[in-house]
Batch of 3 targets.
Target 1
Amino acid sequence: MDIIREGNQEALRIPGITEVPWHTSAEADTYRRLRSTPQGLSPVQAEERLREFGSNILPGKRPPTVLQVMLHQFKSPLIYILLVAALVAIAMGDTKDALFIFTVLLLNASIGAVQEWRAEQSAQALQNLLKIRSRVRREGETQTIPAEDLVPGDVVLIESGDKVPADVRLLQATNLAIDEAFLTGESLPAQKRTEVLPEDTTVADRSNMAFAGATVLTRRGLGLVVATGVRTEVGRIARSIAEVESARPPLLVRMDRFSHQIGIGVLVFSVLLGALLTTRGVPVQEVFLVMIAMAVSAIPEGLPVAMTVALSLATSRMARRKVIARRLVAVESLGSCTLIASDKTGTLTVNQQTVKSIVLSEGLRVTVGGQGYNDEGRPGREDGEPLDGALRVRLTSLAKSGALCNEGTLVKKNGAWRHSGDSMDVALLALARKMDIDPEAERTAAAILGEIPFESDRRYAATAYRGGETLRVVMKGAVEAVAPFCSRMQTASGKLPLDADRILRQAAEMAENGYRVLAIAEGPLGENAAVDPLDPLHLRDLTHLGLIGFMDPLRPQAKDAVAQARRAGVKVVMITGDHPATAFAIARELGIAHSADQVLTGTEVDVCNLYDTPEFHERLKAVRVFARVAPAQKLCIVDHLMEVGEFVAVTGDGVNDAPALNRANIGVAMGSGTEVAKDAAQIIVTDDDFSSIVSGIEEGRYAYANVRKVTLFLIATGFAQLVLIGATVLLGMPVPFLAA
């Protein structure tokens, strides 16, 4: 590869293609640099580039073989000492003692290997084997090919429901919304555009790019493949994991220290005993046999087996509680953690936007029960008073309006709820279901005349329909965007002139509490609207119906699990790519944080440049929420948490979490997460529930307590044997024990 310069940009020359910050490249330049055309590549070009760049896949981590799992059991200083003792016994011709020691070691390795092999097979069974296929344009014809055959320069088409097959520079984006939470940590869909962006734009804000592995939620787009395989953003993070050194499990750290101390003690005692016997004229061979007996007495040879059994039993118990430990030592590591650095979306929350609060124009607040995309839960007044008839009518009107101005779907098939579309659209459909409204029936009966889809620059959507003899319109969107179209607001006393300042204050208060806020308005269309009902000239004098607050709600057991962790002496901090206000609202509800001073953003850390200062370490001890954090920042935060003396368990499910999962004392991946995250972790939680992690800590502490008891018992008996052997030698009596 050669370094070249284009203008004032330094780029990397990969044979045939120039790699540049693609979000800064205009459409014509993108085609030119990729040597492609709007008609796509020819089959010959595609074949050449496939040979040049390789298949569009990430190098998978091969599962360990039975032999590798077996050999892994021998990686312990105690095992090394016993092996040396066995080899010395063989050299001295004492095959009986050597055979006994090897039998003990083989028993230990077999028990541990069986447990780790089962755990590894369970982890492998979680992998998603679905093959992605992509629509591409080649020589002007649209065809569907396996995603692994994509190459840089391919013109690729994506639409609602697709997985983005590679990193794509978008050239057409029609109301395109993509879920990139796995990469950025942002819980809301990314609204995509095609405009050129500044070079310093962060990955999360590159609205003209679609990244490999993301899910298309709404509408469609077209773009050029600019990176495949390991060159994608996902691939770069996967490669960086190999450069991150994992922290050693605490059990291994303790056992290394313990083995070092035993080794020195054995050496000192053996040398002293050997010297004493030699001065008494004892033959050298007999001296060595006594020294071997001394070594085997001093070494708690039952400890590896006891540890393996204790950890194996804990592994089985953890598996029943939805926690898979891929290595036996990971069981104790989880039990030893003093701090859990948890992801927010999907771990502490259900990762499904849900209508939780409704604020009507006069300030009356209504809470909505349930969570997720279903019909469970009902609205109720915040003050506990029952819903009267008039209030129920108003809420029904608001829910119908949200269902009419909607591009999502939410249906129940075979007892399971299925959805598609933007998360907030689906949440509005769930609200309608909770009000016993059938959204599909409402849209069919409404005779829809036209729709304005939501776009990030417009910030509102509208639907025109025929309501009886009149033409009407429903609008939803940001409060600032919808308010100018309204002249009135619906209250319990009827329609009153709009108090825009009051509505804006209500929205600001909801936002401060972590809600995503949409305003809903409706009204008749203006005169002469039949020709072009959605002309902005006709969208006026609407009635503001209310504000709807959305939140990704907590998992049901999360709050109790955080409290349980705190009682067990384990701190919980949240590290997320989400907005600080949203993150703090969730953290406050969970009891993780209590004031805004406990929130730190990735930008604040970078600007202050405090990573290597005592001030940052002091601040770090007080912070409980890290928001808008990039993968590199998350890695640094985990490093420094370990530097201040914490045993850190990191949870996550996305590609952006993988480096930190690999670096932490113990990495905990979610079963529904990306394969990159699961490969980097030592523990996998199959139900994605934070409470399962706390259950795993409980089992890990039981295992550590058992290991500690066995260790103390074996040390005591070993010391007694040492005293007995030493006393008999000093008294000139026969050695009471052989190595066996």
Note: The chain has a mean pLDDT of 81.
Target 2
Amino acid sequence: MKSSLQKLQKFLKLEAERGYDNRAVVGGFERMVDAWQIEARNEELPEDLIQVVSERLRDYQRLNQTSRKEIIEGLWKRIQRFSGVDREVEKIEEPPRKPHLAPPTAPSEPKIQDAVSPETNKEISARLPVRSRKKISEEEKAALDASVTVLQGVGPRNASALSRVGLHTLRDMLFYFPRRYIDYTQLKAINRLQYGDEVTLLGTLQSVTKRRVRDNQVQLVEAVVSDGSGALKLTWFNQPWIVKRLQSGTQYTFAGKIDQYLGRLVINNPEVEQVEQQQLSTSRIVPIYSLTDQITQRWLRRIMNQVVTFWAPRTCDPMPEEVLESARLIDLSSALQQMHFPDSWEQYKLARQRLAFDEIFLLQLGVLSQKHAWQERTARDFETSEGWLEAQLKRLPFPLTSAQQRALQDARKDLVSGHPMNRLLQGDVGAGKTVIAALIATMVTHHGAQAALMAPTSILAEQHYNKMLQLLTELTFPISATFDTEDSVEPPLTTQPIPPLQPHEIRLMIGDTPETEKREIREGLANGTIKFVIGTHALIEDPVTFSDLELVIVDEQHRFGVEQRAVLRSKGTNPHLLVMTATPIPRSLALSVYGDLDLSVMDELPPGRQVISTHLLLPSERERAYQLIRKQVDQGFQVFIIYPLVEESQASEAKAAVEEHARLKDEIFPDYKLGLLHGRLSQEEKENVMARFHNGEFQILVSTSVVEVGVDVPNATVMLIEGANRFGLAQLHQFRGRVGRGSEKAFCLLIPESADAAENERLQVMATTNDGFVLAERDLEQRGPGEFLGTRQSGFSGLRLASLTDVRLIEKARAEAIKIFERDPNLTQPENKLLSEELKFYWGGGQGDIS
């Protein structure tokens, strides 16, 4: 582990031991952030990890003890995942263990020679008879939570090795599933292999050699394996350590794709596993577990077989009988047995389906519980008359789209429901979310209450502030306009209408706001003269109090932590909450992960919004992109050029912003003014660069992905993205949304690192659609849900077997969860007792990002 992470781990553990008093580091965590950032970047830690750590620790001193605990535990888990362990190797504090359904898996490599007695499990609980699913005793449950050291042959040294893959108890072992399987019933003889086959073959290694090729640049390992029917050549490129793992005369299984070289069949870079003679069976599917040092497959598989065979039938099944029957699921005991040692692939599929269903089902119960808790609260009503709203709509310089009108009506219903609004407003780049947020804010401030909008950066906050000033304080419709006031409490507008807010009632509060102005804003918020404040995390600082905060708006919600949103909401009494995101959310995620939120989807662009012309170029066509850039800049427009890295490294061939900025400035665009933006700049430096670009001082901005969110530069018409294959489609779509915000035609140019056909095929989707929802679905399929989850926690990271792309499974699990929840929302009925315990364990006692 990198020294910067080891140091951070030490501080986090000490902080937990001290009770979260912010004294693990002299002067508090916020004092160490800058120095730690430098060390982390020198060790080339991912920028997103550095940013998360920095953001969390800078705000640490302002948080209460509960929020501090969440921060420390969240960072601890993130470090463990980054280090290659799916679950904490060493917990900061050891919570009570309860039955759990979603176990971890972990990374690999191989030596434990200790024997395991066949009688081990019986010795542990010979007194415990096998009982029915509903009658398993507390004594049996406690036995399952016993340490692995109760197994004969597993002493402290071996237990320490097992702990590195998250195996602390017998129950952990039950839920530690294989990462793959070898089907010894489907082995193929070498003389029956054909080009293109993807096979597993069993053979004896005849020879293995290592040599350098291509001017000593590549290390090549070559081996020959035979199985009695023939011989086959195997090759590994730049993996010299393979030689130490292979011994001539030993049997191995090799898995890979059959290729061809000089007319002869070969396998390039195959996976290899040593065969244990006593484990072989011609009619058995053999599990392959993730390993760590000092653990072999042979040893771990033997222990697993002992534990699973005896203890799987004695495992409590928390799922109610009616759910098992309705969803056609097998019982948990059978599922555990078949996941570890499948009798057939059909049985394996049934087992995996059951366990995946459990994960989604618990996820659904969790978000339904959060939604129920939120709806139990009461909130102030804000009724808006048709006449008043019509007046505000006619003030706008453009008509609302149908999608905007639907979102506005959704919010109106929320504001008169008597319960706090808890709505996610998701819309594609440029769909007009800011206008809707402005109108919702006026519905609240019109009644004398206050609203606050929190944005992730000062640039974005300032942009929102200027937009809100324009929308809410300027008069933009004819004096003679009249309105239908049949249902209105206000009289008809016969004189010049007054804008809903005055400029002094809307204020901006960011880190750079002078202290005298901050003091003035704090006084205005406290006495109620300021109705609408826009800002960054400066809004959640302790001195900020509100007279009557009734609406909280959070922009780019995935950029904020749970505790930051909670602190802002706590400054009011059950205020209405609107969270916004410019990342379209796939339907399956909306059904599951965001099931606690009411969704308003804005999938329609305003009239006149430019469709951005997107083109995929080969690296050899880069000069074409440069020619377009010169042409656009000469016409007075501006350009973004995005690179995937800050600086080049030997480990990667990807182009990097710092080196490329120098090259472009000196060799390609010497006559133009170029700016440079990347994550290693301080926040003040970043905002200074963006401000200069926005004001036209730079014609070309060379940047990393830090430019992704929200910056509005109407004069920018070209977005060139180098190393485009390194970004997800949703992220590329966000980049593309930075241009085309004016009336001129805009271009997005994608240049991958190579002409590889598969990558180009994936990126070609960008050139065929401007629909962010289509791209989001493709991104979810290809890259998983990580980009959409942001800082959502607990159950969302607990999915091991279920896929958030499986809409059918999600819909089935959600339907069953709703049936249970409608009948017993608090899971207090006797038949739901085990389910309630399981739900608490699954969510770790935590909360979602809204509750």
Note: Residues 3-82 form one domain.
Target 3
Amino acid sequence: MSEPGFSPEQQDYLKGFMAGVEARRGALGLPLAPAEPAAADPMDPQRAAQDATISAGGRLTPEEEAKRKKHPLDRWDEIATTAAEGKFPRGIDVFLTKFHGLFHVTPAQNSFMCRLRIPGGILSAHQLHGIADIAHELAGGYADITTRANLQLREISATAAPEMLMRLAELGLTSRGAGADNVRNVTGSPTAGIDPQELIDTRPHARAIHHHILNHRDLYGLPRKFNIAFDGGGRVPVLEDTNDIAFTAVRASNEILYRLALGGITGHRDFARTTSVVVAPSATTRLCDAILRVFIREGDRTDRTKARLKYVLDRLGMERFLALVEQELGGPLTRMDSAAFTPAAPQLRHGHIGIHDQKQQGLHYIGVVCPVGRLDVAQLHGLADITTRFGSGTIRLTVWQNLLLSDIPADRLDAACAAIAALGLGWQASHVRGGLVACTGNAGCKFAASDTKGHAAALADWLEARVTLDQPINIHLTGCHHSCAQHFIADIGLLGAKVEHGDELIEGYDLHVGGGGGPHQAIGRLIRPAIAFADLGPAILALLRAWQSDGAGSFQAWCAARDDAALAALCHTETIEA
């Protein structure tokens, strides 16, 4: 129909004529002419990458085939229809619905979980009040703080899903792209803009890439999920080295830049790999865009287990990957030797809890302890009220599953703390509880082998009654190999496992020790697999007492000085106390 010998009017006439012929054939019951396949959109990098995979003889995964048939963001009608019918998605539709931040978590719960997007983890009191109302009216009456400084709402019925998404939008929030093959919540320093030692305020940079992603539809075509983090050099770690893109603020002479690291995925035992690349803060969004587009082209679409950025770097090597990024940018990246950087100030191990001064004269922030990251509706409303009455109406979530209330004058600290206590919350914690992190566990996740949140609370109670530590440690409990609680980077990392007990399988954990992040990067070592939860407290208590009795050094350093067999032997020496 596009031969050059036909005028546009003739082409239109022939198209209409052939459409009439096809309609007549259908009316007579004759087979229709085969339709021409739709041409790939040249502006769709996901489809181009899929086409390249097929041309090379690869077989797309079912998830890639589903994304190829229809863009997952174009599923509002399906979500509305299944909600009207009171049904949850099934089969591959469960995966596709995650693009809207809705997770059907059966069989753990026959309901949706909704994960939000909160760039930098910073909320207003108005938004937190709204989330509390949504949790009360449409969900289970609570919200969970995640290890990406984010919030999740649970126990959402099938019929409530569209209302949930609409209510979030009316608050100025979204869950779009919070699950499946997307850039997840962008994290930044929780004390950004208020930290006396920070090099740079990360808020505008986290915000910029957040909105860039939301407004570029072609960045929802990744091979797998992707994480981005900004550390501004402040007191509280944001664990940027566990992310696919890690920006760490550095000072070189009188200039503040971000140093780039790539490919962090500690669930696969890999930190982000430091590069010599530095970037001006104003250029971080453009650099992220280029990295994402190279990842879209180069990521594996035939094997979900090898589809993260780490495996692209393994295959290409860092320099080849960066050369492709430079091609995408249309110019060279800036390189700088790390010797040019001023040494970074030390971070506070548990600086996310307690009362701390801000760089604004006379103002303070309070790090509120949120037991295993869960807050009920009354506590959500109460915290929003406290930050409005005593502070600036700002709530800052952290990757440590707690939150900060900022901008509180010194003469109002006592009243604010009393109000926090009235909610059943606190701002002080033992060295055991201050670094306690737990994923959702099998109470709300189908992958988890153990009740991590319940066990974390019980374990902290049990240990606190028996040992007082003079240094902080981090204990992370994660329910499955996805490692949402990042067990490999904890001093004590616990991975959910099923343990044989007679003829039964009971809940327990694999015990890892010696992990760390930031300047103390290390992947924890497995010293004892499959410990029943009833035996876990005594095993950890034995390790902690042995460490304390030696009287010096961090727990990580103490573990590093001993081999696996010696540490495992210690775990067998303690008996359960009354």
Note: The two ends are 87 Å apart (CA to CA).
